[in-house]
């Protein structure tokens, strides 16, 4: 039995059970902390009635979701309507399979990976599964047979299409630098320090790629300020307008699980995954059980930081308008990531891909794009410059309507 | 129709280089929100935890549930003059006046019904009352199971007076010490019964 549990297959099974259950709990408590952080930012208490500090609020909410009448409206496509929240949650959870949680564990004479699977194409797998997340939203919006929901679905599609490009390019920069798609290998390569102080994380090589990847991750997981697919104020909830009870809860959980996947991916790609400098247990050489726990803890801490960052941003920034969203993707992020991509290729050609020149190149790209931003004549509102100025057109309309009424 | 001179044109703000790049502005906003977060975490949120904590209400001018005052002898102070019923914009006061059993006034309310559901708590009745008999208190959590229970009668309104008088004494009992009004002693009022008595005698 012990022998089976310590084989790679046994570990994978344990990880599947552990991760799914832990994630369900964590996503639920993410919702709790989202509400708490929102309250703190707005000078409020937040949920504090159910249990000490309100920690059982989510149990109460979950119970409510469970026992509510599960309404399926008559005008919907039933099969897709029921499938959509399941897809949304499923793809968000499946992505965790390739995340390296705790490095390697040496049991007796065996070395097992503390992750469900360690495929050669781990990164590609996470990317592919994560981009399937939009299916839940699109199918949900389509099956609802409702104009607002459909609008939300269309927005989600266009947004995903636009933000997949900078996301993919940012990941390509990491892949070029690291030379592998294996997430465990990427983490191991980032272990170690420069000059004994700076950890060899990719964020110090390609900070701009890191920031852009974070922005696109926000957009990919439909978080504010990129949550145009739900947009309560305009679309009455968008794709989930027709959903209630447990199906709505599943969409909700799916969103938060997606956030955790995105954070985990960012941590592995740019922040060294489970590696933390100066702690011997979080170095790749440490493979005993304590090290596994320490590494998992470090990765979870990093993920928690990113989730906090996402919540912090959500309660700070207003939602982008759709044309602004598109402009950010196509006019800012894609050119910058293309430049980063070319930079990474160039550095790789000269064998400088893990030297300070990457940082220098990033800073150069930042300066150039800031200069573009400074000297471009496009107004912030995105109004094309060849349109008549607002002043004249408003007066013209006022004058005409005045003539008609009087 | 809005006059052209009344239209104020607002130009798009001219953004500086940093503002055009979005990110510094975003960081600025995030600094504000994190400041609030820490202020709330280590200070005190502005929320009042309602059932446990209660806001301090301004007794003098808070407009809650009504009460009917008693005079210094414990009788209902109302003289059934219908001023409040007339002033009430929501028509929620219904008075049945009867002849006063007391010597110092002509009328008193046999019935005084006040529909707290129709009431808009404007305080006009309090303004209108010449003897300061009707007043609004700081009670606001009035609940009932039926609409009928929300129509308070005279006894209930007097009971509200009894439980709020310690917190809010009757505002202006000056006029309503009826015998002492004016500088000369008041003659017994000549109402219909008195007249009938005189005629009979």
Strand order of the largest sheet of chain A: 1-2
Mean pLDDT of chain B: 80
Q: What's the number of extended β-strand segments of chain B?
A: 5
Briefly note the structural class of the backbone of chain A: mainly alpha
Shape of chain B: elongated
The count of DSSP E runs of length 2 or more, i.e. the number of strands of chain A, is 4
What's the rounded overall pLDDT mean of chain A?
A: 81
Describe the structure.
The complex is a heterodimer of chains A (about 400) and B (about 200). Chain A has about 400 residues and is an all-alpha fold. Chain A is built from 15 helices and four strands. In chain A, the strands form two sheets. A two-stranded antiparallel ribbon of chain A has the order 1-2. A two-stranded antiparallel ribbon of chain A has the order 3-4. Chain A is globular. The C terminus of chain A is likely disordered. Chain B has about 200 residues and is an alpha+beta fold. Chain B is about 25% helix and about 10% strand. Chain B contains six helices and five strands; from the N terminus they run H-H-E-H-E-E-H-E-E-H-H. A three-stranded antiparallel beta sheet of chain B has the order 2-3-5. Chain B has a two-stranded antiparallel sheet with strand order 1-4. Chain B is elongated. About 5% of the residues of chain B have low confidence. At the A-B interface, helix 2, helix 14 and helix 15 of A face helix 2 of B.
Helix-strand blueprint:
The complex is a heterodimer of chains A (406) and B (201).
Chain A: H1 2-5, H2 8-41, H3 57-67, H4 78-94, E1 104-107, E2 110-113, H5 122-131, H6 133-143, H7 147-178, H8 183-190, E3 193-194, E4 198-199, H9 207-220, H10 232-235, H11 245-270, H12 289-314, H13 322-349, H14 356-375, H15 390-405
Antiparallel strand pairs in A: 1-2, 3-4
Helix pairs in contact in A: 2-11, 2-12, 3-11, 4-6, 4-11, 6-7, 7-9, 7-13, 9-11, 11-12, 13-14
Chain B: H1 17-20, H2 23-42, E1 66-68, H3 83-87, E2 93-99, E3 107-115, H4 124-128, E4 134-136, E5 151-152, H5 154-164, H6 192-200
Antiparallel strand pairs in B: 1-4, 2-3, 3-5
């Amino acid at each position: 039995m012990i022998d089976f549990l310590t084989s790679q297959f046994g570990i994978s099974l344990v990880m599947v059970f552990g991760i799914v259950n832990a994630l369900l709990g964590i996503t639920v408590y993410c919702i709790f902390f989202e509400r708490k952080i929102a309250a703190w930012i707005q000078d409020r208490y937040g949920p504090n009635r159910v249990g000490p500090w309100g920690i059982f609020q989510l149990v109460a909410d979950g119970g409510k979701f469970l026992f509510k009448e599960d309404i399926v409206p008559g005008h919907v496509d039933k099969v897709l309507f029921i499938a959509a929240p399941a897809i949304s949650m499923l793809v968000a959870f499946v992505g965790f399979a390739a995340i390296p949680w705790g490095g390697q564990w040496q049991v007796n004479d065996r070395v097992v990976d503390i992750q469900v699977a360690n495929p050669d194409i781990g990164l590609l797998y996470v990317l592919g599964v994560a981009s399937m997340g939009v299916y839940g939203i699109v199918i949900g919006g389509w099956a609802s047979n409702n104009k607002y929901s459909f609008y939300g679905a269309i927005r989600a599609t266009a947004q995903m299409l636009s933000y997949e490009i900078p996301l993919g390019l940012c990941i390509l920069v990491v892949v070029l630098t690291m030379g592998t798609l294996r997430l465990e290998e990427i983490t191991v390569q980032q272990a170690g320090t420069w000059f004994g102080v700076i950890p060899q994380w990719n964020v110090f090589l390609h900070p701009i790629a890191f920031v852009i990847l974070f922005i696109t991750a926000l957009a990919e997981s439909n978080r504010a300020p990129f949550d145009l697919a739900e947009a309560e104020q305009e679309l009455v909830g968008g794709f989930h307008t027709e959903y209630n009870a447990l199906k709505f809860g599943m969409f909700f959980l799916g969103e938060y699980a997606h956030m955790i996947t995105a954070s985990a991916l960012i941590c592995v790609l740019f922040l060294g995954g489970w590696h933390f400098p100066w702690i011997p247990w979080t170095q790749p050489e440490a493979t005993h059980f304590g090290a596994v726990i320490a590494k998992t803890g470090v990765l979870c801490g990093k993920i928690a930081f990113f989730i906090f960052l996402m919540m912090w941003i959500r309660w700070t920034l207003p939602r982008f308008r759709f044309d602004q969203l598109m402009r950010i993707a196509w006019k800012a992020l894609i050119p910058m990531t293309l430049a980063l991509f070319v930079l990474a290729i160039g550095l790789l050609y000269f064998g400088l891909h893990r030297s300070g020149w990457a940082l220098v190149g990033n800073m150069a790209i930042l300066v150039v794009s800031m200069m573009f931003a400074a000297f471009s004549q496009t107004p912030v509102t995105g109004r094309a410059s060849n349109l008549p100025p607002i002043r004249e057109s408003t007066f013209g309309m006022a004058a005409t309507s005045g003539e008609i009424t009087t | 129709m809005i006059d052209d001179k009344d239209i104020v044109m607002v130009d798009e703000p001219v953004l500086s280089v940093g503002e055009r790049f979005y990110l510094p502005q975003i960081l600025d906003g995030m600094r504000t929100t994190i400041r609030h977060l820490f202020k709330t975490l280590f200070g005190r949120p502005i929320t009042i935890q309602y059932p446990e904590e209660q806001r301090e209400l301004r007794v003098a001018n808070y407009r809650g549930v009504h009460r009917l005052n008693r005079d210094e002898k414990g009788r209902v102070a109302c003289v059934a003059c219908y001023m409040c019923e007339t002033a009430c914009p929501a028509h929620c006061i219904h008075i049945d006046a009867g002849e006063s059993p007391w010597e110092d006034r002509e009328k008193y309310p046999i019935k005084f019904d006040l529909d707290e559901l129709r009431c808009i708590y404007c305080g006009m009745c309090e303004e209108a009352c010449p003897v300061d008999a009707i007043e609004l208190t700081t009670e606001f959590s009035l609940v009932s199971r039926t609409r009928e229970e929300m129509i308070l009668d005279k006894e209930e309104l007097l009971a509200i007076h009894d439980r709020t008088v310690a917190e809010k004494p009757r505002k202006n009992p000056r006029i309503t010490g009826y015998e002492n009004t004016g500088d000369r002693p008041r003659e017994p009022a000549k109402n219909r019964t008195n007249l009938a008595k005189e005629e009979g005698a």
